[in-house]
Amino acid sequence: MEFDQILNNISRYVLLTKEETDEFCSLLTVRRLKQKEYLLREGEICIYENYVNKGCLRTFSLDKAGTETNFYFAIENWWISDIHSRTYRVPSLCNIVAIEDTEVVQIAQTSLEQFLDKVPKLEHFFRILYQHSIAGHQLRLLQLLRLTAEERYLDFREKYPEFDKRIPQKQIASYLGLTPEFFSTVRTKVLRRS
């Protein structure tokens, strides 16, 4: 079944009845993206929570000079959205694009809110999901302020070994707050010691 992965992801924290599962699945749609295809563009209002069935996406913003800054990646079994745009129903300040061919399961924010009213125990799952997300973003911000470039890269490799293999180095550099050239030097130094 095309929704097995998302149901397994949710069942780590919440068990839905058969009726709840059937109703939840009726609210889901599958969207397939080709590499470099956008899930969300800056200026659009985000209306979906997205679960990654397969593939890899990145969230980035552009500054006035057109320089990209990556601040989130998502692979299989991860969730991705622009929570600010979705929550406040305002135009997105970021872009979400597929790094490789990707399949996401989507649920519209309005449908999700209505379902959460009917099945409050699912709110527990999303609370945990959002807590983990906020904690991760907070830690990342602190690491950008406190760790050296080499320490940030070592931490990245340790936490997300699959990212280092699937995400272009230029995008990892941006995520770590480094220029591609400096990142290349740091990466070479780390790999030599490995």
UniProtKB/TrEMBL annotation:
Q: Which domain of life is it from?
A: Bacteria
Source organism: Chitinophaga flava
Q: Which residues form a coiled coil?
A: none
Q: Could you tell me which Gene3D superfamilies the record lists for this protein?
A: Jelly Rolls
Q: Which SUPFAM superfamilies match?
A: cAMP-binding domain-like (SSF51206)
Task: Please state what the protein is called.
Answer: Crp/Fnr family transcriptional regulator
